[in-house]
Amino acid sequence: MTKSYNVRDAKFIATDTMPGGAGTTKAGTALDLGNTLTANGARMDKSELLLTMPALTDTMVPSTKTMTFSIETCDDSAFGAPTVLWSLVTTGGGAGVAAATYRVKVPTNCLRYVRAKAVSGSLTTDSSAVSMKLELLF
Prior knowledge:
Layout: E1 13-17, E2 25-27, E3 31-32, E4 48-53, E5 66-74, E6 83-91, E7 100-105, E8 113-120, E9 131-137
Antiparallel strand pairs: 1-9, 2-8, 3-8, 4-7, 4-9, 5-6, 5-8
């Protein structure tokens, strides 16, 4: 039987606008998992990260242009040397990019902070009218 993680806590939800132009990066708000109290993030493997990506119009991400989403972890909130936990490149297909959600298991060696990040490719336009959301689910 597959376990479904659906319990939410407002402390572990970060909603951030998308990049404001071509070739720009929008690093999301860091979620503090507080797992520096344990050597290997004990019990964090019993949870998931849920990334909700917004629908992006054909104007925002035209055909063959890209928007890259990732989830990163780091031991400092400034993300000086982040590790990528998950990444996906989306490509406009004539109708933009459809909204989607992705679930990622939190690894046992996950560092204290996690965040979502979106990087717009060349010749994309302002997509800051919409937001991405990262949640920790228990």
